[in-house]
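Input sequence (358 aa), recorded before submission:
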Amino acid sequence: MEVLLGKDIDELQTIALSVGLPKFAGKQLAQWLYNKRVCSIDEMTNISLSGREALKNKYIVGRHAPVAEAVSVDGTRKYLFEAMSISAMDGQPKQYIESVYIPEDDRATLCVSTQVGCKMGCKFCMTGTLGFHGQLPASEILNQIFEIDARYGLTNVVYMGEGEPMDNIDEVLRSLNVLTNDYGCAWSPKRITVSSVGVIAGLKRFLDESECHLAISLHNPFATERQQIMPAQKMCALEDVLALIRQYDWSHQRRVSFEYICWAGVNDSPRHAKELIRLLRPFPCRVNLIRFHKDTENNAATRNSQDELFPASNEKQMEWLRDYLTENGVTTTIRRSRGEDILAACGMLVARELQEQK
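Predicted structure, token format:
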């Protein structure tokens, strides 16, 4: 059965015609899927009974609820979803992805995944230990947004969960089109931020075909040092990423930010700060400093390796780095850590303890 969720208006109109419905029924389908957010074709009551039966012979909506949930002491919630399209493949074990809901003051942000696991292999990221198991279709990216309890109160969505969004650019763009177009959810692109290590081909398409905000995972301003912790630097050279970004207008509605996890003596020194200023001061951007969240599970080898290679910067040093960069023309903030006790913070998504709960 083919999934309706994630289809654009042209596709839905074609589907309507293919089952004997008038073309305008495509718009009705979009309203049921993206405005009323139904879970079944039977709920589409302004479509004739015969039309619904014809649709049901070939299509399903494609919604499915999370199979487990964890709640942090700070109110953050982490959801476990089965990756249905990948689990359904012959010979594949069941696969899962996680989403994180972060309530804070007048904001409610959902962090969504775009792949099962990740190909990028960043040395400091727990998600990278999963390896790569498949691309999520637009339907399963959107399902994470539509299936949480707080779905109608969301103010922002960030594509910063499992996976590299620009490595799955076709499906990421499809999901963004549904979220931002009038036939879909009609969100402002300013409500959405997509993260990347800098996969050039996908990044260019994102910049050309979307108006959503961009966040680049930087973590070290020196190419050789960045490659030691981020193997993707070899194919996504920081110099090339910055050269591409500079071709676009960042002076108005769209925003670019740089994510920067801080490690003591590794990337938080005056030498690194000066290079960040040299690289980033030429155009408007923001640097988000992030506390390092290491593996807290009982994997002693991994934990000891992280302690040795990635000692977390202390608060005082992060505050110094923030102030130094800001005073020298690079607006910088320290991102508040959320959900660390349930492995929901940055770089911690591995679907480990939630799978045990389901």
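Checked by second reader. The first strand starts at residue 2 and ends at 3.
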